Amino acid sequence: MTHIKKFNEIPLSILDLAPIKEEGDASESFDESVELARHAEQWGFHRFWLAEHHNMPGIASSATSVLIGHIAGNTTQIRVGSGGIMLPNHATLVIAEQFGTLESLYPGRIDLGLGRAPGSDQATAYALRRTLHMGVEDFPMQVNELQDYFSDEPISRVKSVPGQGLNIPLWLLGSSDFSARLAAEKGLPFSFASHFAPAYLDAALELYRSQFKPSDQLDQPYAMIGVNVIAADTDEEAEYLASSHQQQFLNMRRGKQTKLPAPVKSMDAIWSPMEKAAVLQSLDPETTIIGSKETIQPKLEKIQERTKADELIISSQIYHLKDRLRSYEIISELME
Questions:
Q1: How far, in Å, CA of 170 to CA of 84, rounded?
Q2: Which pTM was predicted?
């Protein structure tokens, strides 16, 4: 019988979007990501992932593999990886070589999480690929190619050097049932983006677990879910800090891509009732948890108990670095 884990038995990890703040730039963002990763390692977080986004002025992690190397080089033991690499944007061989290089530099510490969305708009996708011939429908084939490049005896005449024969854990990421189904079929760990697509969480996990087939990488399903957490010493302060994330989602809904806004005392002067409802639908209270340590602990325990997640990966879009560090420090105290 499979042991059902409790919240205090599972690892907690970090999803860093390398936010670029108002009045800030990418250089500052990278310095802050390094500072966060160093603290995360000290506090006992399991992994530190970075996400591929393009043409977004508020996210600096577009060259994801480069930034993973920078974070890994400034830490010593925490796992570092992609949450994720948007595989349709790339030649599969290039990703194999990049992550083969990372694994060779930092052995036993690199994760390769894969997504099938472009992480951008159509114009940006065209600029990345120069053609849209390769699309999301080709994603399963690309995953097969990547697995072949990393195998001991690749079928392909082209070899990934470095990459061939390296044990780099592959993850599939998703916000719908497609990647859940594919992860189950291929026996890979699965991470669901419930931090922005909470509506499909339960269905995707049920499908993944019920259809899972053991593989050389994994003998039973392993599911990680994304959760937004904004923690502070008081509920009132946490609500104030959360307004940066809310403004960012509101701007996206309005069709504007902006840097991460500074927090405001009240959102009611900024959004309409309809906009508020739409933003809070994406930032569902079960997967966007805001408050003091005493407030967030039972909510994190509840979402983990409901979903039976094997791991939580936490995103905290907080404007000031000191507040972001304090938020993760509070979260880390729940692991003690």
A1: 10
A2: 0.95
